[in-house]
Amino acid sequence: MILTKNPYKFLTIVSLSCVSIMANGQDKKQGSITNEDIVIDKERKIELPQANRIFEKIPTIQDANKGKGLRYEFTERKLPIQMPQFSPVVVMPGDGISKENTKLGNYNNVIKAGFGNYAHTFLEGHVGIQPNEDVYHGIYFKHDGNRLGPVGASNSGRSQNLIKVHSKTITNTFKFDGAIGWERQSTHFYGKVPNPYDIVADSIAQHWNKFHYIGSISNAIRGSKIDYTATSGLSFLYTKYDAREWVWDSKINAVFPITNGLTAHFDGNMVISEYTDEVADRRQLFKLKPTFQYKNDFLNISAGINIANDKDKNLNLNDTYVFPTAKIDVQPIENIHVFGGIDGDVYMNNFMNILQEMPWLAAKSQLKDTRKTAEFFAGAKGLLENGFGFEAKVSYGQYRNFYVFNNSGADSTRFNINFSNDTTKVKVTNFSGQLNYQYENFRSLLKVDYYNYAGLGNLDQAWHRPSFTSTWNNTLTFKEKLIVSSDIYFITGLKGKNLITNKEQNLSSIFDLNLKFTYLITDRFNVFVSANNILGKEYQRYLYYPQQGINFLAGLSYSF
């Protein structure tokens, strides 16, 4: 296999390209490229979007007259499971600069502060400078914490703090982006039966720190027939309990035209990590994905192979896999698309990603990479009259090393990550849909997902994975002075098991209603009030971990 013969040569090329970005980098999102459409910014001038004075993202819905630009809203998922964010989790803004044009003033910098119950404090901001039209530097920071939690007062407090410096530079030939930052998150192991106990909060505290750097270089030559982006990032994380991990992740994405409608795509990815929790484990994943794509006004078809080499020192693993990949998109009538395809992949389950998904992870967790041996999918999408748009998709996938979380048998306040056996093919069927609507100052977005799990083997159940999720987001603006938004989340089908009592428990369905009001006092100042979990349900997303009841946050935002 090409990558495994000399993987470091590939990594060196990408890394050297990014070394010069240390002082001139930008945001990771700018280096993102999909296999279907490569879009490289060849404009010499850096156009800064206006600062969104409402940090929470509002889903945008494309104009029905732009049918040819219609793109899939479905995001590539690590597994066909993606939990919606709900209180007390605060939605992360777009790194201080939102692409949303809310017509709220021509300002690129924002500072926002607020206070709420549960001793909630919030501070967020972005400040940037643009020395000339080809260079931009910025700093983004955030503090979001509750000193008190849903049970046991300070025994269940939580916080997030982060700071990131980012930069962008465009020359006649290249665009450089990069960022360097630090993040700290803290929580408590407060899940206990029957009720929280009298104990010093620090003795059950958990926190982790993460330092990271990301840099990219991409083509900026106008009219170039070849486009590319090379990205390289290095992260280091350590926890209170001395677990630590470093991850080096490098990617290259390129497109080469062959004929007027035919192009060749090349995607490469190398991930090298070392996870240490008493014992060090060196893990590596190398991937190459060459594909060909033909595209005209009515048809978009691509086909290729995905080659992955997976290495794990402690598991004595060194295997190479080849997966076919193909997609077809047909437009039978204007603004209506029908699509289908097949795919396969290998996903590295890093300790960093797992810990962000499950903050109450037990010590000495063993990690494995998940293989999607095959996934078949089909669906339709379209823009209808009167501002409506829709997407519907059904997929059937088979996974090896499929993982779930469940309470530890040694301590129910901690969770283990449990993998299916490598000989087991876990079958996941997913029905997903999206309906959006936009009319003047009103936007609405409804998403639903249904999951069915079969062939779980040694897992018995898909512990703490839902069978059905839905989110409904709405935003209404009154004369560009008052913005009212609502978020409704519904999750059901969650199950957990107490391994000490050997009893399985069905968790109650989650119904979470959130409202937010923002009033623009001037073109620079606005006040906001948000209320989360208005119904006051102290539901459990994970067994023995009740969430906050009704909670609110009020504050002031200043744009400059």
Summary, kept brief:
InterPro entries: Beta-barrel_TonB_sf (IPR036942). The chain is built from 3 helices and 28 strands.
SSE blueprint:
Blueprint: H1 2-5, H2 7-19, E1 110-116, E2 120-132, E3 135-146, E4 158-170, E5 174-188, E6 205-219, E7 227-239, E8 244-257, E9 262-277, E10 279-295, E11 299-312, E12 317-333, E13 336-347, H3 351-357, E14 370-383, E15 388-400, E16 403-407, E17 415-419, E18 426-439, E19 442-454, E20 468-478, E21 482-492, E22 495-498, E23 503-506, E24 510-520, E25 525-532, E26 540-542, E27 545-546, E28 551-559
Antiparallel strand pairs: 1-2, 1-28, 2-3, 3-4, 4-5, 5-6, 6-7, 7-8, 8-9, 9-10, 10-11, 11-12, 12-13, 13-14, 14-15, 15-18, 16-17, 18-19, 19-20, 20-21, 21-24, 22-23, 24-25, 25-28, 26-27
Keywords:
560 residues, mainly beta, Maltoporin, Chain A, 22-stranded antiparallel beta barrel, two-stranded antiparallel ribbon, 3 helices, 28 strands, globular, disordered N terminus
Contiguous runs where pLDDT drops below 50 for at least 5 residues: 1-45, 48-78, 80-105
Number of alpha- plus pi-helical segments: 3
CATH architecture grouping: Beta Barrel
Mean pLDDT over the full residue set: 84
How many distinct beta strands? Answer: 28
Q: What count of domains describes the coordinates?
A: 1
Helix/strand/pairing category: mainly beta
Strand content: over 45%
What's the CATH H-level homologous superfamily?
TonB-dependent receptor, beta-barrel domain
Under CATH, the topology can be stated as: Maltoporin, Chain A
Radius of gyration: 24 Å
**What separation lies between the terminal Cα atoms?**
53 Å
Main location: membrane
InterPro entries: Beta-barrel_TonB_sf
GO cellular component, one term: cell outer membrane
Subcellular location: Cell outer membrane
